[in-house]
Amino acid sequence: MENNIQKLSRKDIIFLKAYQSARSIGGIGHTLLNANELPMSSLYNLTNITLNRYPECQPKKLIFHYSAYVNLALENILVSRGSDEAIELLMRVFCLPNKDSIITFSPTYTMYAKIAEIYGIKNIIIPMINNMILDIPKIIKLLHGVKLIYICRPNNPTGHIFNIDSIIQILKITIGKAIVIIDEAYIEFCMSENTIFLLKSFSHLVILRTLSKAFGLAGLRCGFTLAHKDIIKLLRKVITPYPLPIPSINIAIQALLPSAIVSMQNKVLEIQKNKKFLLKNLKKNDLVKYIFHSETNYILVKFYNAKNIFDILWNQGIILRQQNHESNLRDCIRISVGTKTECLCLISALKSISLN
């Protein structure tokens, strides 16, 4: 039976390395700072939910509330299973396997490349200049045959924001040539940097959003695509019939009520306060070689002897995220900003390693 499966399978999938999510990597501990989740949770009411009927494909009430939150027309919004599904839908709509290409920038969120690999779409990787700046001359040079450009802003794992002028420049040079996707999964941590205002000027701009990060609903799997109505119409043609279950829709609506949005914003302020505290103490630690500037709820840190530090913390139940899979981020560890207690736990453990 096994031999038959091997023969029937796509050969590239047999040799494909699966995406390593924080949960698939594992780690058992009391301080989980490896997945950029919000460390505090909210309570939601799920009484009187009927589950014998299928949900709406695009729930009107949920889209209405998100429309009010982002001040955008209903026709410009699509709901999906997190923003990961939207990343895939865009490739499904715009790219032909073994013909079209996408552009990504290294280092960045690796799901763009992984989905492209699964679909047989060429991924043109353009390294950032000093891990921070988009190389626009190289984009111009490599644009032929490219359908999609994925820009993570703020960028994961570095945490920094690309200059808005460079985003506008890329949008101008890609008019009529490619779709530009700005992944704003972490934008609530630096809301003044959002790019929604550019949708009025550039019909080939797509913005990805999620409730997984600042809203503290990573387990809900609810994302939003913001784009010109013609792009939304195309995405609706290829999305699964029931992307979100009824309980997820119900909770997402509750999370977008005005009082819940205020609560989310207060939690963001608390995380930002905890980040300042964590940064202050990391700068004092002699294990730390370099700290990347971050506008998000995580910090990328270059350590001396990073692997040893990571392993010691892992064994103590403090779970972080290594970045050694990125050649230009050797000895770097990404740290999600936790509660004050979790930050103190990490700082104390690093001090202990330093003294030894």
How would you describe this structure to a colleague?
- The chain is of the alpha/beta class.
- The chain has two domains: 2-40 and 269-355, Alpha-Beta Complex (Aspartate Aminotransferase, domain 1), CATH 3.90.1150; 60-259, Aspartate Aminotransferase, domain 2 (3-Layer(aba) Sandwich), CATH 3.40.640.10.
- 38% of the residues lie in helices and 17% in strands.
- It has helices spanning 2-8, 11-14, 22-25, 60-70, 82-94, 111-119, 136-142, 164-173, 229-238, 246-255, 258-282, 306-315, 340-355, and strands at residues 31-32, 77-80, 101-106, 122-127, 146-152, 179-183, 205-210, 223-227, 288-291, 298-303, 318-319, 321-322, 332-336.
- Strands 2-8-7-6-5-3-4 form a seven-stranded mixed sheet, with helices on both faces. A four-stranded antiparallel sheet has the order 9-10-13-12. The protein has a two-stranded parallel sheet with strand order 1-11.
- Helix 6 links the parallel strand 3 (101-106) and strand 4 (122-127).
- Helix 5 packs across helix 6 (111-119) and helix 11 packs parallel to helix 13 (340-355).
- The longest helix is centred in the last third of the chain and has 25 residues, at 258-282.
- The protein is globular and about 60 Å long.
